[in-house]
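Batch job 17 of 40 flagged for manual review because the log was empty.
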Amino acid sequence: MRRIIDAQPPEVRKQIAGGVTELDRLVRSELVRQSPLIEARSKSWDKKPEVAFAIERANEQALLQMYVSDVARPPSGHRSEDEVKKAYEANRRAFAVPGRYNLAQIFFAVRDSADKQAVAAADRKAVELAAKARSKGADFAQLAKENSEHKDTAPKGSARCDRRPDASAPCARDRAQLRGSNDQPLAT
């Protein structure tokens, strides 16, 4: 019975040590458990192949659980939970993950050296496509396939990305303008 008591969680051991009632309850529970167990062994149930396999698996699981629990236990002298919380609060910014943007875009190549007419034409095309994309029943992917000038993403139906603000092309680079939902043409 001592081994059974020692195997109990600390809270249960404390309750048992605090009174005869808890110990009596544990002893009765163990007697109820032992009775059918003795009967099963007397009928050689533990020798049946499927039962023997289940027993083996249960033994392995118990060994694994106890081993991992022991290995995962922090060494003595390890920082307390309060110390970890304080360190986290003091360095919260270092643990922050930058915002991410889910972008779907149609790319138009306009060189920085392009004349005003080329830039204006690209702007008109962008405004026209943005209006089409917002219209009821519009298929953005199809519009991108037909109009994007980015050779890698056009066949896929645009550059769809889930990027951090510091990421580079083919997704838009001017992240300062990407607050909330932006369905307007954006020059990068």
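Reviewer: the log was empty due to a logging misconfiguration, but the result itself is present. The longest helix spans residues 49-72. Unflagging and moving on to job 18.
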